[in-house]
Specification:
Blueprint: H1 3-9, H2 11-34, H3 37-53, H4 64-82, E1 89-90, E2 93-94, H5 104-110, H6 113-123, H7 126-137, H8 142-149, H9 153-175
Antiparallel strand pairs: 1-2
Length: 188
Amino acid sequence: MPVWELIAKDAEEGARVLVEDYGARLYATAFRLCLDAHAAEDLVQRTLVRVVARIASYKGESAFFTWMCAIMVNFRRMDVRRKAANALVFGEERLDVSDEKPDPGELLSRLDEATALRGAVLRLPEDLRLVVVMHYFNGFSVPEIAKTVQSPEGTVYYRLHEARQRIREYLSKVFDTPGIKSSEGARQ
């Protein structure tokens, strides 16, 4: 029995199964959006509560996870509107978002290719980061993203293009720093 039918039949048991089946994936998505563990936990909790409360509105027109992500994205948008500044945080470490190139020795000690890519994604504005997380980290198609964020598909394509361009620019700055060697795959 699909989880949405289980929730409609027995909300308590359905909620337990919902958390088991989707909790980790929702948290990973929320963390990539919020960049803060506590905010991500709160976002997931509010999303799960809303999913259970509004299960009757799920019509099956999109994948269930896509529908849940739309709810989560709406909560995230409300949160961002409430905050004047959206700090870029990864775990407990704040990311330096200045345009200055860090000391090459410091880069060698704390950056690898995955960290550099994560840093590039973190530097993206909220609207670009959202489509990148949904497309590349969660495997959503462009039509699914467009429906979730309530934007035309062309806008989603543009945001993905713009995000890739900005990520390439950031990575080229990081890896073109004297003394830094990277694999050829990381530069592409």
